Amino acid sequence: MAATVERVVTSMVLNPEGHAEVRLRGGMDGRLWLMIGPSVEIALTEAHAVALRGDLADALGEMRALDEADETAGKAYCAGSAATRAAAEALTRATTADLAGVPERAVHLRALAAKAREAGKVAAKAADAAATAFREAEDVTEAIAAELAETV
What we know:
three-stranded antiparallel beta sheet; 152 residues; mainly alpha
């Protein structure tokens, strides 16, 4: 006898409001019902619920890690921008120091500007690398999911 494989034919994303009620209720015929708000019902089997229970801690950890990574990449981008702006301001002030006859201050400000420019470049590279890594990981994950959906 050939195995029967159920597949979700359509991909759907639901984004319920944060205050929407989400409940799991038992039903008849070996079904559980995932209720989202007043109008969304998703039928699950016991195996689905057990799988979800097993995935819960990992999924929450992944969610937190992704949020932290996104925040860190954003901070790197902002820090890089701030360093680049600081470098430009230091160079402007260095020119002013030269015109005011304070060459030591101008030299010091130019050295700080060079450090700030370098820090800005490093931070921008880090933010770009994070964005590239995210896209590549997402692309390969989607490719694997599509391949597995086609495999029986």
